[in-house]
C-alpha cells in the first residue's frame, strides 16, 4: 500500500524560493501482514530523500551469540553532506515511538506530527488509505 502527495509550505515565499526542489511525501507499507513494514520519506526533487522513518530490522545475531544481537527499533534517517562532501546518513532512534501501529493511517499521522505536516484539515477525509483502524 502506498500514499504519495506533494507538500507546500504555509509561507508562500518559501514555495517560490524552493520551486526547483518540489517536496513529496511518501508513506508505504511493504507487507500488509507486518505492522513493522511501514516507511515514510520526504523527497526534495533532484536532491532525493532528505528525511525518512523506518523500522530497523528485528534482532539479528551472528552465530546465535547474544553479545552480537542488534535491537529492533524505529529510526529516522537524516541524510546530509559532511564538510568533505561525503554523504552521511545517521539512523536516529525514535525512542518514543510505539513498537507497532494498528494501520497505515496511524503511522502516517505519527510521521506527519513529527515532521510538522498539516495534512488533516477540517471537513477533510480522515483516512489516507481508506481503511478503518484505531489510532494510538
Notes on the protein architecture:
The mean pLDDT is 82. Helix content is 12%, strand content 28%. The protein has 2 helices and 8 strands, in the order βαβββββββα. The protein has a domain of 83 residues. A hairpin with a 4-residue loop joins strand 3 and strand 4. The relative contact order is 0.16. The strands form 2 sheets. The chain has a 6-stranded antiparallel beta sheet, with helices on one face. With 136 residues, it is an alpha+beta fold.
Average pLDDT confidence is 82
- In this structure, how is the largest beta sheet organized? 6 strands, antiparallel
Shape assignment: flat
Content of β-strand: 25-35%
Q: Whole-number radius of gyration?
A: 17 Å
> Ends: how far apart?
20 Å
Q: Spell the H/E element sequence.
A: EHEEEEEEEH
Compute the number of helices: 2
Low-confidence runs? none
Residue share in helix: 10-25%
- Give the strand line-up of the largest sheet: 1-2-3-4-5-8
Strands, count:
8
From the helix content, strand content and strand pairing, which structural class follows?
alpha+beta
Amino acid at each position: 500500500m502506498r500514499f504519495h502527495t506533494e507538500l507546500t509550505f504555509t509561507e508562500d515565499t518559501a514555495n517560490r524560493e524552493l520551486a526547483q526542489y518540489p517536496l513529496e511525501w511518501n508513506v508505504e507499507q511493504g507487507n500488509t501482514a507486518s505492522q513493522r513494514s511501514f516507511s515514510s520519506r520526504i523527497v526534495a526533487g533532484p536532491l532525493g530523500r532528505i528525511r525518512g522513518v523506518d523500522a530497523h530490522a528485528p534482532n539479528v545475531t551472528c552465530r546465535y551469540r547474544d553479545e552480537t544481537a542488534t535491537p529492533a527499533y524505529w529510526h529516522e534517517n537524516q541524510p546530509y553532506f559532511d564538510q568533505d562532501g561525503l554523504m552521511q546518513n545517521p539512523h536516529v532512534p525514535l525512542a518514543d515511538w510505539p513498537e507497532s501501529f494498528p494501520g497505515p493511517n496511524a503511522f502516517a499521522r505519527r510521521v506527519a506530527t513529527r515532521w510538522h505536516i498539516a495534512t488533516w484539515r477540517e471537513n477533510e477525509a480522515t483516512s489516507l488509505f481508506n481503511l478503518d483502524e484505531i489510532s494510538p
